[in-house]
Amino acid sequence: MSGSQIVVLTALDVEYEAVRQKLDAPRLHRHPQGTRFEVGRLAGGRCRIALGLVGKGNQSAAVLAERAIAEFSPVALIFVGVAGALHSHVALGDVVVATHIYAFHGGTSEDDGFKSRPRVWEVSHGADQIARHVARDRSWAGDLRAHRRAPGVHFGPIAAGEVVLNSTVSAHARWIRRNYNDALAIEMEGAGVAQAAHLNRSLPVVVVRGISDRADGTKETTDRKRWQARAVANAAAFTVSLAENLAAEERNRDRFDETGRMGNSQMDGLVRNVAKDNARVVVQAGHVHGGIRVSGEQDPPADPTQAIAGLAARLQQARAAGHLDEDTYQAAQAELANARETLHTTTPPDTGAVTLALKKVRGLVGDVATLAAEVASVIALVQGLS
What we know:
Elements: E1 5-10, H1 13-20, E2 23-30, E3 36-42, E4 48-53, H2 58-72, E5 76-85, E6 95-103, E7 107-110, E8 113-116, E9 119-122, H3 125-137, H4 144-147, E10 153-160, H5 171-179, E11 185-187, H6 190-199, E12 205-213, H7 219-224, H8 227-259, E13 271-274, E14 292-295, H9 304-320, H10 326-345, H11 351-364, H12 369-383
Parallel strand pairs: 1-4, 1-5, 5-12, 6-10, 10-11, 13-14
Antiparallel strand pairs: 2-3, 3-4, 5-11, 6-9, 6-12, 7-8
Helix pairs in contact: 1-8, 2-6, 3-8, 8-12, 9-10, 9-12, 10-11, 11-12
Pfam families: PNP_UDP_1
Organism: Actinomadura miaoliensis
Protein name: 5'-methylthioadenosine/S-adenosylhomocysteine nucleosidase
């Protein structure tokens, strides 16, 4: 199984439960500060999900999104939940996927009124393309189509603030229309999640919202008619398919980055340049055909346990040489110990958990190029067990 892990966050218990039901035997993961996540694989899928509940509001969403990113080092983050529609062509139960997130409460108050100063985050091109592919495929809807109209999927801006909008005539509603008239939906957490992802080397983040009301004063009525539950189910179904596709994309990328082979087998030759200490590897050529290997060291052992033991020894050498400080060394060794224990105690080996630990090591030793390259090779070796 793949080690690609996706963090999925929700604001409401009903949203959390809709995603949790799609996980196979989720296990509790306690953060040192008390936050509880559940981690599991999608039923029948190749994707690991770390699921968390952030509560309402952009502030708590930002804090707990940052915490989840640091804890799990995910390949992407998805926020899933409900929202109010701001345009009539977006139907109840439809899914809105954000292309932009507006943090609409920023502004300046002057004598002639309040003037908007929004912050905007744009979804990454790659994540947007994957989400659109999922929408076109339509297989994500699955059994939903057997019970009711297949929900539509809309791509466009989403406005995120600190209020529940339930009027079309209030001053606040008029202000939203005046300044954010292209927003398809309004909600309360997307801006915080987008900010946290932006601060983490622009981690891909996708905000998926099921439309549960029209933000027009009829929210109580639509809630009584159970539109919130329907919207949650639709958004969760789309999120699961999106997560699987995001994880598959990362697997293909890892195969190329860490083994020199394209995921679609268009590149059949191995290309790996490795330099040790003060050595430099340079290849200059007009045309290169076939495989080239220029290496100052041997490949890692074929056995993952031996390879991880070798990494532990290399960490000791790097610390002794002054390339790693003590805190980084101890943190990296702890992750290697987790990886070894997982290999010994899971049958078949939980390669996803092992890969996650090794990716954390790669992040810790990233400033030491040779160590990072060795960790990447071992990650490829572990993923080969899948």
